Amino acid sequence: MLKYIEETVSYLQDKGFESPELGIILGTGLGQLINNIDVIKEVSYNHIPNFPTATVEFHKGKLIYGKIEGKKVIVMQGRFHLYEGYTLQDVTFPVRIMEKLGIKTLLVSNAAGAINLNFKKGELMVINDHINLQGGSPLAFKGIEELGERFTDMSEPYSLDINAKFKDIAKNNNIKLHQGVYASVVGPQLETKAEYRMLKIIGADAVGMSTVPEIIVANHLNLKVAAISVLTDECDPDNLKPVDIGEIIAMAGKAEPDMITLFTELIKTL
Ligand code: HPA
């Protein structure tokens, strides 16, 4: 893994990806933040050595280097999912690359279903904890010790400091912002009614198919991390309608401007 990381990092450094302070991963249907970047350089995933190739049609799949609010950032437009057939190590490889390039903070976004029925579609949730239901760990492989501590602490995986700032920013900008627990499943099938009931019982407020692997690796690398779920649908097992993935993506796009405000205002304070 180390050899691959070094190869990819030196490719991107040669392309001019110099000392970014912050990394951002954009989730499904959440690509408009790129309009807020002063782009210096961008590279398609399929040109980057050792990167998994992008397959999800909703994503454009590129790594963008530039400035937001004057801060040097790397933005992943489109992420890799377990449900596309990648391994957890593939899915999290870009986090290791961004860390080696120099980021100290990682911001993550995703589209998620609301399990907590006090939360409505179109609203946002700051993730303050998670439940990993993906059946594996991105740290469970031979050679992990050459990259860092195997038994990574997860007592506080999300930055309290950033989450408090999000709360203030939301208040100042009239944005409805919840806090809660995100459960990650493999997908790509949506959940059954019984699964939604289970998710509620075990303490999840939202469910999605991403984010947790990247958060685990970011903690492995001692990055400061925060994540926001854009709630795209309401997962009420007693009134469940067939899911429309087009509607989910449209809802993500509709709620995205609030998420962009949270991210850009936060970046001003970093
Ligand atoms: N499950 C249910 N609803 C969702 C999901 C999910 O994984 N992602 C976005 N909305």
In short:
With 270 residues, the chain is α/β, with parallel strands linked by helices.
Q: What fraction, in percent, of the residue positions are helical?
A: 25-40%
Bound molecules: hypoxanthine
Structural class: alpha/beta
N-to-C order of helices and strands: HEEEEHEEHEHEHEH
The end-to-end distance, rounded to whole angstroms, is: 31 Å
Radius of gyration: 17 Å
Describe the fold and architecture:
By secondary structure, the chain is α/β, with parallel strands linked by helices. The chain has six helices and nine strands, in the order H-E-E-E-E-H-E-E-H-E-H-E-H-E-H. It has a five-stranded mixed barrel. Helix 1 crosses helix 2 (88-101), helix 2 crosses helix 5 and helix 3 crosses helix 6. The radius of gyration is 17 Å and the shape is globular. The two termini are 31 Å apart. 43% of the residues are buried. The mean pLDDT is 93.
Q: Topology of this structure?
A:
Layout: H1 2-14, E1 22-26, E2 38-44, E3 62-68, E4 71-77, H2 88-101, E5 105-114, E6 124-132, H3 160-172, E7 177-184, H4 193-201, E8 206-208, H5 212-220, E9 224-234, H6 245-269
Parallel strand pairs: 1-4, 1-5, 5-9, 6-7, 7-8
Antiparallel strand pairs: 2-3, 3-4, 5-8, 6-9
Helix pairs in contact: 1-2, 2-5, 3-6
The structure holds hypoxanthine (HPA).
The site of hypoxanthine (HPA) has 14 residues, from strand 5, strand 8 and strand 9.
